[in-house]
Amino acid sequence: MELLKQMAREIRAHGENIVFVDVGAAGGFPRQWTELAQEGMAQIYGFEPDVEALAKIPKDSPGTLLPYALGDREEDRTLYLTRMPACSSVLEPTAKGVQHLPVRKVFDTIRTVPCSLIRMDTLVARGEMAQPDFIKTDVQGFDYEVLKGAEGVMENVAAVSAETQFVEIYKGQKLFGDIREMMYELGFILRHIHIRGPFDGEVLEADVFFSRPLKMNRFRPKILLWERATKIKTQTFLERSANWPADYRVALSEEDRLVRSAPLYPVKE
To answer: What's the pTM value of the predicted model, to 2 decimals?
Structure first.
């Protein structure tokens, strides 16, 4: 954690903000980002449209909590509250892809409440939140729409993590392939997949992690910070090929060598 804080201090010393956005913040913010915010090194914005779930987030959480449901348009919707609160969504739960599993029961709708959708890039344009550097979504089948509604600010986002499903659980939801394709079109690469479950041995959903390609550019310091915060360890080609036979080795460019070894902000000659 101390190295993470040191990296954050260096980024801030170069006049950069560190803004983490948590969409679907029920349960509180991730510890690493919380500690950075507590020391004034990061800003956190949390979104949670379920009023009861929002009330359970500690009042002293070091972030701005907003009771909005985010999406790709502004419209009135229905929030479906389920037997397991963490499975609630603005999409109607059908549990279509898990009907053969005991877990299907947690998606039963207990009641519904009205909610209104708004785009993230609209909130940034209005000045209600800062430009995000990092976005995390966990909104039960609606992650694609949330990220679609952030397209206006995505140009300056360094990394994104999202919950995604491989089978339909919510009516009309987008699946992993849809999110992956959109993120690639926005200039991100898939960095890591963390399988959620278990669901009786079947892979049904996962947290997926995307970042800008790691190069010697303006995103590099924040990508390295994000890797540390999310504990994503990427083996470089140089590390992997170090013990390969000479015939297999590929000469790396100077940038390839520096991207992992250089300081966060290399001194310019």
So the answer is: 0.93
